[in-house]
Amino acid sequence: MRENGHRLRFVTNNTTHSRRRLAEQIRGFGIKLEDAELQTTPVAAAHALKGKRVLALTMPDIVEDLGEVELVGEGADAVLIGGADETFETNQVFSYMNLARAFAELQAGAELYCLHKNRWWQTARGPLLDSGAFVAGLEYAAELEATVLGKPSPAYFQAALDALDSDAELTWMVGDDIEADIAGAHACGLKTVLVRTGKFRPDAVEVARVQPDGIITSIAALPGWIETAA
Q1: What is the pTM of this model?
Q2: Does the bond joining 127 to the residue before it have cis omega, within 30 degrees of 0?
Q3: Residue 37: exposure state from Cβ atoms within 10 A (0-12, 13-18, ≥19)
């Protein structure tokens, strides 16, 4: 893609690993990228919540990306819900006592934010429940609506466009999630390509309110496909 003159931005809703660790993992796959090319939701959250006192229910690894906020256990201006992973730490982060503490802060006037609101995520064992269920529960209990800081929020895609210094109509979003990737990007005016991997489900595409501009079997097909489509 770079050889063909395209500028790239890797945008992820991963909320369990720091940007540094994720960039190292991606480079381990043989993909060349700088840390700054990787846009993560925790980094976006730190920017959005800068200067606030935040009660954060997140995986420990992303704390290094939340350096611009003051993390507190009580007296919070905002409650931030991160994502789940497959480790035992998920049980600790999203324990009843922690969720009850978050509810108390919301009752006291704190605002509710989440890194994403995904219902589930794909693992080697199959689909697993994600933290969107906890976000929905807090919304229901506190009678308020969470602000989503990651995909599919317009602010997240706009941040990527700003980083690329590109117009939406000249930019392609490529992903496997029909809602977070395709519908979110489409709402911001981007062109979209759905990949038949990961979260791709044929039945979900059939009933989706937004259809992608193209569907490819593998990310490896993208360079050739996009040259003919563009």
Answers
A1: 0.76
A2: no
A3: middle
